[in-house]
Amino acid sequence: MENQDINEESINNQQDTNIQNEATIEENVTAQPTAEELLAEEKDRYIRLYAEFENYKKRTSKEKMEFFQYANQDMMVSMLGVLDDFERAIKEIAKNGNPADLQGVELIYNKFKNKLTEKGLKIMEVRAGDGFNVDFHEAITQIPAPSEDLKGKIVDVIETGYTLGDKVIRFAKVVTGN
């Protein structure tokens, strides 16, 4: 009787193993993708690759435009000192000099300034009484405000600020009221 129980048990084990093998075979058969699934997967990969390439083209185009826009920034910054010297010379000639000399220097100054403006240089319009803005102004010092309405505002402009396109290339140096 024991042999019969052992035989029945081994037959049951074999049947369980066969059922498991059949299930595994069915899983393997269903695990292989169909042609439609493969096509959908390849189409998805293609669309993603195409979108990535379009983003790359846009990004490099934008970088190239920014490069050309700000490529002459160093030259512009170096020319600001010459522009400042012209402004100082015009003030001194106006005080002490000959009006004919002043006209010649102003003519050269305006021509130089116009050429820089054509290349994208913009003068920051800063006046005494304007509000102090850290994004455009650099406070050199603070002095007691001459009047109550100048507290926390610009009292004097020491050096003109400039922008190239939308980028500040030199902050306006100002004195603020305290």
Comma- or semicolon-separated keywords:
single chain, 178 residues, alpha+beta, Nucleotide Exchange Factor Grpe, Chain A, domain 2, 3-stranded antiparallel sheet, 3-stranded mixed sheet, 16% strand, elongated
Give the N-to-C terminal Cα separation: 110 Å
Shape: elongated
Question: What number of structural domains do the residues give?
Answer: 3
Outline the low-pLDDT stretches.
none
The quaternary organization reads as single chain
Hey, roughly how much beta strand do the residues contain?
Answer: 15-25%
Structural features, described:
The protein has helices spanning 2-31, 35-70, 73-96, 99-118, and strands spanning 121-123, 137-143, 154-159, 162-164, 167-170, 172-177. The protein is of the alpha+beta class and 178 residues long. It has three domains: 2-70; 72-119; 121-178, Roll (Nucleotide Exchange Factor Grpe, Chain A, domain 2), CATH 2.30.22. The chain starts with a helix and ends with a strand.
Please specify the SSE layout and strand pairing.
Blueprint: H1 2-31, H2 35-70, H3 73-96, H4 99-118, E1 121-123, E2 137-143, E3 154-159, E4 162-164, E5 167-170, E6 172-177
Parallel strand pairs: 2-6
Antiparallel strand pairs: 1-4, 3-6, 4-5
Brief sketch in words of this structure:
With 178 residues, the protein is an alpha+beta fold. It contains four helices and six strands; from the N terminus they run ααααββββββ.
